[in-house]
Specification:
By secondary structure, this protein is α+β, with helices and mostly antiparallel strands. It contains 6 helices and 8 strands. It folds into 2 domains: 55 residues, no CATH class; 136 residues, Alpha-Beta Complex (Nucleoside Triphosphate Pyrophosphohydrolase), CATH 3.90.79. The radius of gyration is 20 Å and the shape is elongated.
Amino acid sequence: MYENDKWLDRALQLQAIAQEGLYYGTGPFDLERYQKIREIAAEMISEGLDIPVDRAKSLFCSDIGYVTPKLDTRAAIFKGDKILLVQEKSGTWSMPGGWVDPDTSILENTLKEAREESGLTVTPGRLVALVDLDKHNLKLHPFKVIKAFVLCRPLEGEFEKNIETVASRYFAMDELPELTQDKNTSDQVFMCYEAYKADHWETVFD
């Protein structure tokens, strides 16, 4: 959606400079200038995306502190030669996962999201990959995202409809459904399958 819009990258860079300046700055005049830069960045985003300024500020300019990427986990759950995917309300499918909560680790979040979205209790195996969303997935987020893919083995449980997913199913590699591209691509599914079949695996990272 935004991959060819260099103006957005520039606006986000301005926003990042302003956010860090507002957090670390001390002088009143400098703080005033950083706030002005942040407002200009919000106006650029508002005009470019054709959304209200208040909405742009809420999406892009509401964080505080040093600007860092967000972390997302995906549980690659296999049974036989099939991978478990969950169907979202949009109709597309993804590996169970979501944003890492501030009080959880990658491992803890992987187990939590698998349970919430698929109904399964799983045990983690290996960290398959730690990758930059911008380099591999459809970019739908206004911030940097790092994705962690974790190989898991199912233990027990069954799917229950919840607020995020409406179905779950195991798919063979040659029958993958339409995937939620910002969450997982077919290349990432096949990468997880390779890690599942491999005796030894070196974690992929950008």
